[in-house]
């Protein structure tokens, strides 16, 4: 096992030496990063759902579609009754199907940076519910401030 001494300088100009094993850390970090990345995307999808669930009819992370290394799928039904399958990846969110758990590879829809902007485009009911929730929160803040 090869060990290297690495000198690390801190902000106070002190230095310390640590043992570093490049071969071992590279292999184990890569494997852990891959696993954590898959977990993180599903966790990110769950967070997306929790953020806007109040403003849609139904929304959940798909358990029928396999999440790949950096992709998770979310099913959403708008307040108007329209169903969509959304893809979440590092590029953002986009519609990939017009039914739950449906991925249409021929669709080339726009990516949105946030679930808010995507739903604002798809659903006037979402826009209204989000605006009402924001207004109620501002009113509560104003009441608590007086």
TrEMBL record:
GO terms for cellular component: cytoplasm. One of its GO terms (molecular function) is kinase regulator activity. SUPFAM superfamilies: Hypothetical protein c14orf129, hspc210 (SSF103107). GO terms for biological process: regulation of canonical Wnt signaling pathway. Residues 41-141 form the GSKIP domain. PANTHER family: GSK3B-INTERACTING PROTEIN (PTHR12490). Belongs to the GSKIP family. This is GSKIP domain-containing protein. It comes from Coregonus suidteri.
């Amino acid at each position: 096992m090869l060990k290297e001494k690495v000198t690390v300088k801190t902000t106070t100009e002190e230095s310390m030496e640590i043992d570093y094993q490049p071969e071992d850390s590279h292999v184990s970090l890569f494997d852990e990063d891959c696993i954590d990345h898959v977990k993180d995307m599903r966790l990110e999808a769950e967070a997306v759902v929790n953020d806007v669930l109040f403003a849609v009819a139904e929304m959940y992370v798909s358990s029928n579609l396999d999440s790949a290394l950096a992709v998770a799928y979310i099913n959403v039904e708008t307040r108007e009754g329209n169903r969509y399958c959304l893809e979440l990846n590092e590029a953002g969110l986009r519609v990939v199907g017009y039914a739950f758990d449906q991925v249409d590879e021929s669709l080339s829809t726009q990516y949105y940076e946030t679930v808010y902007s995507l739903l604002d485009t798809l659903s006037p009911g979402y826009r209204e519910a989000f605006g009402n929730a924001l207004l109620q929160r501002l009113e509560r803040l104003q009441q608590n401030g007086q």
